[in-house]
Design goal:
By secondary structure, the protein is α/β, with parallel strands linked by helices. The protein is built from 11 helices and 14 strands. The chain has 2 domains: 248 residues, Rossmann fold (3-Layer(aba) Sandwich), CATH 3.40.50; 40 residues, no CATH class.
């Protein structure tokens, strides 16, 4: 059955640009793009917990989401004809498990590979631009031909595969067409980059592959925002002038041994943000005490195991992960000042992923952590989204 979607919603502001998001999860990418000025006509995901969480935040009046149309369905069942003239921008995070370093690495042989649906959406909606994100595992050498195939499909979405054509044959057809000088029809300038969220002020070492496309007739000439936060600046704040410890009121006796050395770095630049930065003001969770913060409940049972020993307070967090077969506990633990280990609370994980404190999560700890672990950091989405929006407004306004 093909789902026909109701397109009655429209951008709530004349300064917004209408969008549609596939594979929206619990809303990290959408929230950041919304801050950048994109207004989704619809958000689509097959996962009931994610959709219910978005709907619950909308129902309780979370800011600016009242017009969001959240639809739980399989992307393969969506009919885009209702939206063809309404959607200006397309976004989404196709399921990453087929390419994840922690997954089974089945790529196109995995039924969860939804990049064909992302390409179909581009082909049928013809947006002026799009953004898709995925894990860095997609850049592994073993996936290189298939990644090139994804990029060429997004570049020439109208050159669709015939039903009997195997993907390698379609790749050859796309390569030949791309190498020719006679292109016609819908075409996109597509760029990609592996970004580390820590370089943009997110308190987490999280590498994500971001793919951005602009319709070729716009001549957008867009490039990714430059890094704004630096490891060297954090090192200096800890071991050069000690300003990091002063900021957090850490007594000298409790600081690691400070080794003063020469720092060949422009220290005026912003430093990486740490776990301690992210959790500031939350209070140490205890059984039955959450200090007035929603989703800040203590969870016992954390144990380290080989290769998974928790995140240090004074470094960016390890990647918050969802896991293929449940949440890997060692990745979602924190090492406290006294060396004790415990799990992150849901609120702490949300802060590390830069979700606002008034954005709530409504399921069990494991399901909430899965939602958060699969999300795009809100701040990272907003930074890239604002750069895209600036370019689109300029190009649309000058055309």
């Amino acid at each position: 059955m093909v789902i026909s979607l109701n397109s009655q919603n429209s951008p709530s502001s004349q300064h917004s640009l209408s969008s549609l998001e596939l594979f929206c999860g619990t809303g990290g990418l959408a929230l950041g793009l919304h801050q950048a000025g994109f207004e989704p006509i619809a958000l689509i995901d097959w996962d009931k917990n994610c959709c219910d969480n978005l709907l619950a935040n909308i129902a309780r009046g979370y800011g600016g989401l009242s017009n969001w149309n959240v639809i739980q369905t399989d992307a393969r069942m969506v009919n885009y004809s209702d939206f063809e003239s309404d959607v200006k921008f397309l976004s989404g995070g196709p399921p990453c498990q087929p390419f994840s370093l922690g997954g089974k690495h089945r790529a196109n042989r995995d039924a969860r590979d939804m990049f064909p649906e992302a390409v179909r959406a581009v082909r049928e909606l013809k947006p002026i631009g799009f953004i898709f994100e995925n894990v860095k595992g997609l850049l592994r050498p073993s996936f290189s031909p298939y990644f090139r195939y994804i990029l060429l499909q997004l570049t020439h979405p109208e050159l669709a595969s015939k039903s009997e054509m195997e993907w390698r044959g379609h790749l050859k057809l796309l390569e030949d067409y791309n190498a020719s000088k006679h292109h016609s029809g819908l075409e996109y300038d597509v760029v990609f980059r592996l970004v580390n969220a820590a370089d943009y002020g997110i308190p987490q070492m999280r590498y994500r592959l971001i793919i951005v496309g602009f319709r070729k007739d716009l001549n957008a000439n867009w490039s990714f925002p430059q890094a704004s936060h630096f490891k060297e600046a954090l090192d200096y704040a800890k071991f050069g002038d000690g300003s990091y410890w002063e900021e957090h009121k850490v007594a000298k006796k409790d600081r690691p041994c400070a080794i003063r050395k020469s720092f060949d770095f422009p220290y005026a630049k912003q430093r990486w943000r740490t776990v301690r930065d992210a959790l500031s003001g939350l209070g140490e969770p205890q059984k039955g005490v959450n200090f007035g913060f929603v989703n800040h409940e203590y969870r016992s049972g954390a144990r380290p195991y080989a290769g998974h020993c928790g995140s240090l307070l004074d470094e960016p967090s390890k990647t918050i992960k969802a896991g293929v077969h449940g949440v890997p506990g060692g990745e979602n633990m924190i090492v406290l000042d006294d060396g004790a280990l415990r799990y992150y609370t849901v609120r702490e994980s949300a802060r590390i992923q830069t979700f606002p404190d008034d954005y709530h999560f409504y399921s069990s700890w494991s399901k909430c952590m899965r939602q958060i672990g699969n999300a795009v950091p809100v701040r990272l989405s907003a930074i890239i989204g604002k750069s895209i929006m600036e370019k689109l407004k300029y190009k649309i306004g000058s055309s």
